[in-house]
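quick q for whoever's on today - can somebody do inverse folding on this one?? i tried earlier but teh output was garbage lol. tokens:
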């Protein structure tokens, strides 16, 4: 049995990548679900909140929203090929959104 793994990355734009990431981890997602949650959070007086989506692959994505933070930390937990593919996609998304490869560990390290 594979050991459960996790990979955390921070991104400025999660909504853009969620449809593909959720497809990789076999999670139900409708475009705009996260943006709606984020809008409700921003209108609230809460300092932080967590949005998560479980996948049928055994993976789960959790994104931490913080009142005064523009970049959001997301953590993918899981096992097997779905986790490896999802973590690699997060790494590629981090780089494509201007992330510094020296500041973020790749999922293959």
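ok took a stab at it. sequence:
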């Amino acid at each position: 049995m594979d050991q459960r793994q996790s990979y955390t990355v921070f991104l400025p734009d999660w909504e853009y990548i969620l449809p593909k990431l959720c497809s990789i981890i076999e999670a139900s997602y409708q475009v705009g679900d996260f943006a709606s949650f984020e809008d409700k959070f921003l209108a609230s007086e809460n300092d932080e909140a967590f949005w998560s989506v479980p996948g049928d692959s055994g993976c789960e994505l959790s994104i931490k929203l913080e009142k005064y933070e523009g970049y959001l930390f997301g953590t993918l937990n899981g096992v097997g090929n779905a986790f490896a593919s999802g973590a690699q996609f997060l790494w590629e998304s981090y780089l494509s959104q201007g992330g510094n490869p020296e500041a973020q560990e790749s999922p293959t390290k």
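fwiw The chain is about 30% helix and 25% strand. also Helices lie at 18-24, 33-43, 80-96. so keep that in mind when u check it
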